[in-house]
Hints:
The protein is of the alpha/beta class. It has helices at about 20-40, 55-60, 65-85, 100-115, 135-145, 170-180, 185-195, 225-230, 235, 245-250, 265-275, 310-315, 315-325, 340-370, 380-400, 405-425, 430, 440-460, 465-475, and strands at about 5-15, 40-50, 90-95, 115-125, 130-135, 155-165, 185, 205, 205, 225, 255-260, 285-290, 290-295, 295, 335. The protein is built from 19 helices and 15 strands. The strands form 4 sheets. The protein has a 6-stranded parallel beta sheet with strand order 3-2-1-11-12-7, sandwiched between helices. The N and C termini lie far apart (about 55 Å). 5'-O-[(L-methionyl)-sulphamoyl]adenosine binds near residues 11, 12, 231 and 262.
Amino acid sequence: MKKQFYVTTPIYYVNDVPHIGHAYTTIAADTIARYKAASGHEVYFLTGTDEHGRKIEQTAQTGGETPIELADRVVVKFQDLWKVLGISNTDFIRTTESRHHEAVSEIWRLVEKNGDIYLDEYEGWYDVRNEAFITETQVEEIMKLPEKNRPRLEKIKEESYFFRLSEYQEPLLRHYSEHPEFIKPDYRRNEVVSFVEGGLRDLSVSRTNFSWGIPVPDSEGHVVYVWFDALTNYLTSLGFPRKTGDFEAFWPADIHLVGKDILRFHAVYWPAFLMSAGLPLPKTVFAHGWWTVEGEKMSKSLGNVVDPYQVVEEFGSEIFRYFLLREIPFGQDGDYSRKSLVSRVNGELVNGLGNLVSRSLGMIERYLGGVVPEPAELSESEEKIGDFYRETAQQVRSDLEELAFNRALSRIWEFIALVNRYVDNTAPWKLAKQEEQRERLKVVLWTLAESIRVISLLIYPFLPETARKMREKIGLPTEVDAEDTDWGGTKPRTAIKKGENLFSRITDKDE
Ligand code: MSP
């Protein structure tokens, strides 16, 4: 039986159109999902939209629409973007769907039945942008920011249901120490541990001063706090409250991917809610870093928000995927700059991979009529390529297990560089001129066809469309075959087709 694997992205707020941050998490999740599926897992990959809460309500009001009109309009931009970016999600959840309403009501009831909900009064501050209750100290910090960067704060004093989060301080700390893999990377785990060690206060989990949310079961006038609502999406999609079918197969999740800003919600509140409801906890919450743009914080007021649609229109989705995963170690912050993107495209995609594929296939067409030859005995230099591939494949697998996308890509590109050097050293264009070197020429060109095949396997999770094109060029079925990963699988007598180049050089004026 196949092993199951469940990966999620955060569900994105529909108060705004998608930007590079949303694309980043989703592309990373897609890469893991494809890698797991190609290595024999049954994969469930969830993304979606977070459509309730004060922020959505206010944005809708400002724009003169109802919240559901806003959500219906913006959700399409996310769904379309995922199509454009080749995202292979299993499901797309919207928190305004009735299946979600049902799941949230149920988890609320379970937590309540466990004695963890009580009615009291909340008096304090609410940060609408982050949908978070904040302390006086945090308010002081916020007031130090320039006015235009301050999130909108609301002073509230209202009746509210509370969740006994304070009761979970010890159980959470125990869980972090018994399951060090629960929060990754390690430096993020340390931050969460110190936060929890600092003490947890009970959490307000309902609101009464607005209505755009899921009503608290059996309680007039209260809507469920949007984070309690949103986090539950990871269960809803699997069919919860039913505990059969997908729920049984895929819960607990293997990885929740989140940005560092929302780690606390996923690594403190969420496991506490689940413990209270008597449900198993996700295995890993992985927090990635934030992108700046050309050295500056990305913000609407600076007008530098990177629109993924524009990037894709200019460069194509594969280049966007490649750059985001290659440029920075997953977990750390990094900078999105056009110059760096252009230099990676020209240096790594055009000169590295693109050139290898086009010159190799060009020679098979020119010297061998476009048919993969039967290789005679392989010499030491070909064995070396085979060995290097096996080692690379092994390392790439372990990099992917650790979500070290940039390291995996840099190893794959070392392999590409090795094969490019092999072309230079063996100089097939010279061999082609000497009749007595005919057998040697066939060995070299077979090795190149085989290298293209294995590179397509290595890059598939990152660049699915490029992998597909490469496989088409060498006459293989476009679907990656998990069984055929060992070196040596290229069949002689297959017809190849060089076709168009995989990537085109970007010529910027200031280059
Ligand atoms: N709706 C909540 C998540 C609920 S999950 C149960 C939310 N939505 S969001 O749309 O505001 O943000 C989604 C993700 O985008 C977060 O993981 C956040 O870290 C990420 N990013 C927002 N700006 C970013 C960058 N500049 N760079 C990288 N990721 C960024 O939070």
